[in-house]
Structure formats: C-alpha cells, structure tokens
Amino acid sequence: MNSKRILGIFTLITVLMLPMSAIANGLPSFVDLAKNCGPAVVNINTVKTVEVNGNPMQDLFQFHGDNRGGNSPFEEFFKQFDDRFKGNNGPKHKQKQGSLGSGFIISADGYIVTNNHVVASADEIKVKLRNDGRDYPAKLIGLDKETDLALLKIEPGKKLPFLTFADSEKSQVGEWVLAIGNPFGLGHTITQGIISAKGRIIGAGPFDNFIQTDASINPGNSGGPLIDMNGQVVGINTAIVASGQGIGFAIPSNMAKNVITQLKNDHKVSRGWLGVSIQDADENTAKALGLPGKTGALVSSVTAGDPAAKGGMKVGDVILEIDGSKIDNTNDLLRTVAALLPGKTIVAQVWRKGATQNLTITLGERAGKTVVSAEKFAPKTKDETIDQLGIVVRVIDRDAEAKTLDLDKPKGLLVLEVKQGTPAENAAIAVGDVILEANQHPVNTLAQLRKIIDTEGKERGLVMLLIKRQGGNIFRTIELDKQK
C-alpha cells in the first residue's frame, strides 16, 4: 500500500471521528431567529356547528373542541373505530366541532394573518399567544377565498410582538427558511428547510404562485409564517402534498401584502377585470400568429361591454405586457390584472397580425362568471367532410340552434364528427365545437374554410381555428397532413 493511499484512508478516518459540531461548522444557526420570531406566531382554535349522524359509538371515539380539535396525532388510531360504525347511521343532529391552525401577528395592536380555510364558517375563533399562554377571542376582519387568506383582530390590552413581510420577489431558490406553527395540535413548533421552487401552480385557485419548501409542514401549520434569514415573512404556509415528504407550499408575501391591506381597510378584496377569455399560446399557435416565441396570453373571446372590448382588444390578440410587466402565460396575466384595483387605467401591449400595439384600458371589477354549456349535436343532413382536417362539419343556419350554442346569431361551422388518427383529433377538436374563424378569418361557409386551408394552410403547414366550446372561445392549431 503506497503512502498516498495510507494518507487518504487516515484523512477519511479523521473526518469520521470529528464531532458533528465540527462537520456542521459553517451551517446557519436558527436559535436567535426562533427566539426573535417565535413570540409573534400564534395558535388558532376554532369551533363550528356541523350536522352529524347520531351514532353514539362515533361520538365516543372522536375528539371535540378544546385544543385538540380533531387533529390529534392519535386521530388515525381512533379513526378505525369511526370507520367501523359508519354504516350504522342514526338520526342527524348538530354538534360542535373543533379545528386548529396557526397564524402570526403583523402589528402591535393585534392584527393576525392566517388562512381562510382555518377560520371559514367558524362560530368561535380563539387565539393563543405564546408569551402569556392565554386564549383571546378573535374578530374576523375579512376573508379572501381565492388566495386562501384571512385577517383577524384581538384586543390583548398590551403591545404585541409582530412580524413584517419580506419582498418575496427577491427570495431565491436554495435560501434557508424557517416554518413556525402548530402541527397536529402539538403547539409551538419550528422546522427548517430551504426554498425548493417558486411560482408553483397546484390547482388551488386562479392566482396560484406558490413558494415550495422542504421545511416540514403538517396539518395545523396552515396560516403560519415561512420566515427568511432576516426574520421576515416570505410566505404563508398553506398546503402540503399528503403522500409526499418535504413538499409544502406557501403563499408569497407580495401577494399576501396586497390582500391583507385591502382586508384591513375595506374588509374585502377588489380585483381588476379585463373581460376576456385567454389561453396559453403553444408552439404551433405562436408559429401561426408569427410570434417570435411561445409567450403571452392569447385572447380567445372578448366580452362585449367589458373593459377590454371598450379598449379595442380583439379576439386573436396576444397580450404581451401590462403596464410594462411582461406576460409569459395566462397565469401571469390573471395575477397581474387581479393585483390592480378596479378603475385603474393600464396600457396593454398586444401582438396583432404580426406587430405590437398598445391599448389603453380602464379596468373593471372582477366578479364570478358563469359558463353556459352547449349541447352536442348528432350528424344531420348538409354535412360535409373536410379531409385535410379529418372532421365532418355543417353550416349553422338556424336561430334556435345558434342560441343553444351560445351564439348571438347563426354563424360558423358545427363539428359533427372527428375522425380517428387525423390532424383534428391530434389537436383535440371535439364534437359540438363551433368553428368561427380560420387563421383569423371568419368562416361561415364550407367554401371559406376550404379556401383558407388550400392557400394559407398549405403555405404555413398549419391552420389556427377559433372555436366556441361550452360557452367560451378557445384556439386550436392544427398541423396539416402534407399528403392531402
């Protein structure tokens, strides 16, 4: 054995014999951070009335009220008894049910941030402070379901420690963070990790933009803060992947600041509204539109009388910027517009027929919108096959049918059949779709559609269709079979 190898083995043995503190030297200490930030984090207990089956055995093996609230670490053990008696349902009766969560103080006079799902529908909300261990009744100031945020207020009769918000846009993947909360009702608990990713979309709502972290988050952590190394709140812990480990999600502080400010001042949240339907522009659609890249939000419909229509926006426009903020996709547009107040005048940069244009639009206020479902129609007479696409279509020429399909008048071509293995099937064209435009030209006859396919379609190798589906407009880009 040569001397270099002996030296290498000796070095390895020496490292393995070092105390853990020496190996860990250089890693951050969270002691001061925990001491300084911990007192501003609170436990939240709620009680609400629910209707349950009157099975006495179920009641026997369930936790109610107090500080456990049905989220005890022993819940799974007792759940087996609950499951055994579910089939033996007695008469329904109302019952008090407890739940728990976390929150954090944002001002010395007792304003507290938490999640909407922690306090929604609660008959009673109590906040426990860490410093004095007392429960204080909390007043609900406001809720926002779309971002899952809520604001509470307590009257402690003294100044309280509080946390401030960080600029979440400046946070970076890989930064250390601390999560503080009340997991499983165990009380004040601190876990550490890093920011694993930003801008996560998990299907929780229209404004998804979550921070992902591997700091341990569990039921009961909801509403608690995710704290950076400066002791500021970079996110509000909200969701977990139940079957995963080290995968938690937090609402970014910049989104929360805007919502919380409105809840405090107005007790509600107002959001900007354009009045358009949008979709992402895929690679083929971008090519069809002559876009330099796959970017922006493609406008598939513009609601008459809404702000976008009044500002001159048209179907087929691609929104690239709002007041100078780049729009990469539909989620960007939703978040950007919703963060602006109704009545604000903005400049929207759009891509229209090969060039950019600036549109001046005064935003309306976002409200719930309903979508009308359209019926699917079986093939009838006067139908013809468009071989290049692989579809069977028919002209819509009756007022009653147009109304059923949510059209303002008879127009377009109704898709009656989509043949297997064809370009139309590959582009997800469906029976019941109404083709309104091809390559941004209206198509109300079969001859018009065929002409566009035979000219622009052959030249570009694809055709972009504007389709009305279930009350809304969408674009579908079809790559043409070169043999046809």
Automatic annotation (TrEMBL):
Gene Ontology molecular function: serine-type endopeptidase activity
Entry's EC annotation: 3.4.21.107
Keyword Signal: yes
Active site (record annotation): H117 (charge relay system), D148 (charge relay system), S222 (charge relay system)
InterPro entries linked to this entry: PDZ, PDZ_sf, Pept_S1C_Do, Peptidase_S1_PA, Peptidase_S1C
One biological process term in Gene Ontology: proteolysis
Pfam families, sorted: PDZ_2 (PF13180), Trypsin_2 (PF13365)
GO cellular component: periplasmic space
Positions of the PDZ domain: 259-329, 371-470
Subcellular location as annotated: Periplasm
Presence of keyword Amino-acid biosynthesis: no
Annotated catalysed reactions: Acts on substrates that are at least partially unfolded. The cleavage site P1 residue is normally between a pair of hydrophobic residues, such as Val-|-Val
SMART domains recorded: PDZ
Lineage top rank: taxon: Bacteria
Family statement drawn from the similarity comment of this UniProt entry: Belongs to the peptidase S1C family.
NCBIfam families recorded: degP_htrA_DO
Name assigned to this protein: Probable periplasmic serine endoprotease DegP-like
